[in-house]
Amino acid sequence: MDDFASALDAARAQEDLGVSFVDGRYIPGIHDPSFIKSHPGNGDSILDTRFSTAKTIFDALSTAKHTYSRRVWRNVTPAEKRAVLLRFATAIKQNAHRLATLDSLEMGKTISDATQDAHISAALITYYAESIDKWFSRKAVTASNSLAYNTFEPRGVIGAIVPWNYPTCNAALKIGPSLAAGNSIVVKPSEHAYLSTLLLAELAHESGVPPGVFNVVTGTGETSGQQIASSTLCNMITFTGSHATGKRIMGYSAASNGKPMLMECGGKNASIVMPDMKDDIESLAERIVAESFANQGQLCVASSRLLVHRDVAANMTEALCSAVRTRVPGSPLDPSSTFGTIVNGRERDRIVARIALAKEHGARCLVDPSHEVIERPGSYLNPVIFDRVDPDSDLAQVEVFGPVLAITQFNDVDKAISIANGTEYGLSAAVWTNDFKAIKRFASELNVGKLQIRADPTSTSTHGFSLGSEPMGASGFGVEFGMDALNSYSRLMSVELAG
User: Fold this and answer.
1) What distances in angstroms separate CA 194 from CA 11, 119, 281, 349, 455, one per listed residue?
2) Which of 15, 264, 347, 470 is an active site residue?
3) What gap in Å lies between CA 417 and CA 307, rounded to an integer?
4) Which of 289, 326, 439, 451 is the most buried (most CB within 10 A)?
């Protein structure tokens, strides 16, 4: 049996269990004939696309509210919570191939990347399991006959709306701190990739998370997502997705109970190359290509803009074109593939239209879309590189969310900072330099939540999940990652005792 056939069997078996997981059990859904689900690796139909009913979503929110009000999970001791979440993390690792197969089949991520995502998700859950007994409140200085302190209390029912690009990781990023903080949660994964989230709920239940504490519902954003965001049973919304969708969710929240939100709404992230990197051009090009085209560019923190000092621009561009041509799209389920597909044909066609618009606006296409690749069954698209990109153009301002890199030259640090800050987004940036004076400027003046300054193309991140960050502008608000994420999923309460 080939990889596709075995993956299809696994996906259909998962969906046959049910398309919602509420109160510790699977619940069947209703078929949506308007939504056609196909494998982006070959275009073949894969699922009947059954989604949660409005009643099931209401029941999920009500069940979560009931478990929170009854303190079913909230009153579990820190040691017990830690043990349950550690068992959950172990179960994710043990089922990494199952989770990866579902993600690869549904959204076209390579099976190797999807497997890595599963292990990252397990590490995220482990991090928050281990954080539970290391999270402290604060005491104020008072008179001897009184006591005053802050305490972090769970927010209640968390409505988590998760995108399709990293289905398992993005779900774990919200599930981990939410459960560690003592909340109940209802997760709505993307309609394009939801099977792995259902499996996560099953694994959590088997690991000891009480029924009704972690629930999953499915459906489109216009139906299921809107119902969750508009529900007064929900005490907080955490969302990752587009800026346009984020604004709609904020409207639903404001029109209902004004629930707080954590919003990560994408970016137009710049990678800045200074002239002192001239001796590392080839290795740097490989690193930039890896970061720009990870997950086929379908990544909020992808370096979609490259700002290059004019003194190294020619060599940098040549090296980038050479490096990117080695990224050949292959079948997502083939273990040898290193570059997968776009999530579906509609998204691929949208990206191709953006590429055509960039050409019309005068950008020079150095690595073109391959018609041979595009015409393959499925939703394939090779990496594309433009240079001579006007900083004010559509290509430099709008999040493409695909394998398209826009190169712009600059003359000095002032210009680099101006261009980097010249979009409505403020998610992340990277700077490549050894210049200490430049580093000080970039660190204090770039308007982003995540900044990486590197002098060595072979350097890797070593802080794990410990650093939280908050985006700016159209990229959203609220802190994810690190211990600070526990604060995001909690409310700060003050307590005063006087004798």
Assistant:
1) 10, 18, 40, 23, 39
2) 264
3) 10
4) 289
Domain architecture of the chain: domains with CATH: 3-265+477-495 (3.40.605.10), 270-464 (3.40.309.10)
> How far is Cα 107 from Cα 121, in angstroms, rounded to an integer?
17
Q: How far apart are CA 29 and CA 55, in angstroms?
A: 10
Residues in the chain: 499
- In 3D space, the residue among 216, 195, 210, 208 whose CA is nearest the CA of residue 95 turns out to be 195
pLDDT in tens, 121-166: 999 999 999 999 998 888 888 888 999 999 999 999 999 999 999 9
* Residue 350 CA: distances (Å) to CA of 120, 389, 396: 30, 19, 16
pLDDT band of 432, cuts 50, 70, 90: very high
Name the one residue in this structure whose structure tokens are 């950008």.
363
Which bin fits 378, alpha (ψ -120 to 50), beta or left (φ > 0)?
left
| Residue where the block lists tokens 């001791």 | 77
* Known catalytic residue at 264: yes
Dist CA 397 CA 465 (whole Å) = 29
Neighbouring C-alpha atoms within 13 Å toward the C-beta of 106: 30
| Cα separations in angstroms, 283 against 198, 275, 306 | 40, 15, 15
Check whether 1 has a pLDDT greater than 60: no
**What's the CA gap between 30 and 422, in Å, rounded?**
46
Q: Are strands 428-432 and 450-454 parallel, antiparallel or unpaired?
A: parallel
Q: Which residues are CB-neighbours of 57 under 8 A, at least 6 positions away? A: 20, 186, 217, 219, 224, 227, 228
pTM comes to: 0.96
Going from the C-alpha of 490 to that of each of 191, 212, 238, 479, 486, the distances in angstroms are: 28, 19, 12, 12, 6
